[in-house]
């Protein structure tokens, strides 16, 4: 579809850029919430398809494994063939994979569909972020656009719990997958009409050895963390996966210094501020994803909430993320250094988690859970927007896709690590507590509930510490100044779209 009037002749900017942002945001929301939308539906899907307790985790892990492992490849493909083209292909593929998963007749079909979703999400997500980077070139507008994008990236997981709860309770679990189809169709037509992008690089070649080494290393590490939860950290398979992952990534770094068209140009991660943003994002998400897992089970299993009520309980967290990102960070980023938002944000989020370490089997939501969620949400909202804006600032147009992919990779790998690490800590602490306190068989149910909550609080202490470490990393590494550093390198607006 050709759109020749993409830029105002006087200002040089696309007059429909805000409608384009709506389409980009819609696609990004679909990708992010799909990592959690099936969490609440999982018990129903497990019963319907006859999954074992050991295999049910693959409904979640198949998605995050494919997503996190293939993001770098997706980002480089976007740079080579064009961001708009890969954005549309990603949307169509994601919709098809979602329909396949919704129609699953056995567990293997569902696992495969979720892996396909993750693969197409790995193509879609970096295209969305790099399109945003090249669409908004004015520093003030770019701050607002990244505020909206950061809010969705931070709150999409919580929104997934709400939508998943409503669909599971009032329809059935399959609609947690079918719902993506109409969203993707709207986004495809919107993308064809509203988004523009310069053509891909016809002179460049795909770095095949880099793809094998980099994606293989990431897949091995994410798979290792996924298997650590059921098998234990010292299991030979888990240790072998970690060793293979580290070896493959070391070989990947070595190869990137010699490859003629590297998958990840090392100058992207050598830049101090960008590296600080990648690491801050990974650490922040480790804490956040672990919290979502614990709070879902705490609200449903310990407090007896329904799926819908559980989803709604996360709503204040989502609202706080949106306010922190769009109303505070987006307004201040042009006036203050990014770390002046990121460091307080991580301290506030850690403070909210410390409040949650005091929860018991009969805690009150209004007085003990809600204040913690509000603090955490506001803190994460302060942090995510400057992370996205700073990590993608000043990147050459031909590298915008792979840079965007690296931000998303740090998010997905952090989420996978956080879920496995904190869940293992919680399970171990729970087992130890029950063994030490179960003396009267008549009190077994009470002791098991108390032990479960004890495990959650121990893991949340770890999550709070990881959040504080994220704040320390941001304070020490992200040293860029506020004026005009949120703007990308000047680039002409293309006059036509293929």
Please give a structural write-up.
The protein has 498 residues and is an all-alpha fold. The protein folds into two domains: 17-198 and 263-477, Up-down Bundle (Growth Hormone, Chain: A); 211-262. 74% of the residues lie in helices and 0% in strands. It is built from 18 helices and no strands. The chain has helices at residues 17-33, 42-49, 58-81, 83-102, 107-135, 139-170, 175-178, 180-194, 208-231, 236-256, 267-270, 272-302, 307-313, 315-332, 339-356, 365-391, 400-437, 444-477. Helix 15 (339-356) packs antiparallel against helix 18 (444-477). The chain is globular.
How is this fold's topology laid out?
Blueprint: H1 17-33, H2 42-49, H3 58-81, H4 83-102, H5 107-135, H6 139-170, H7 175-178, H8 180-194, H9 208-231, H10 236-256, H11 267-270, H12 272-302, H13 307-313, H14 315-332, H15 339-356, H16 365-391, H17 400-437, H18 444-477
Helix pairs in contact: 1-5, 1-6, 1-8, 3-4, 3-5, 3-9, 3-17, 4-5, 4-8, 5-17, 6-13, 6-14, 6-16, 9-10, 9-17, 12-16, 12-17, 12-18, 14-16, 15-16, 15-18, 17-18
GO molecular function: transmembrane transporter activity
Protein name: MFS transporter
Organism: Streptomyces mangrovisoli
Defining key terms:
498 residues; mainly alpha; Growth Hormone, Chain: A; 2 domains; 18 helices; 0% strand; disordered N terminus; transmembrane; transmembrane transporter activity; cell membrane; transmembrane helix
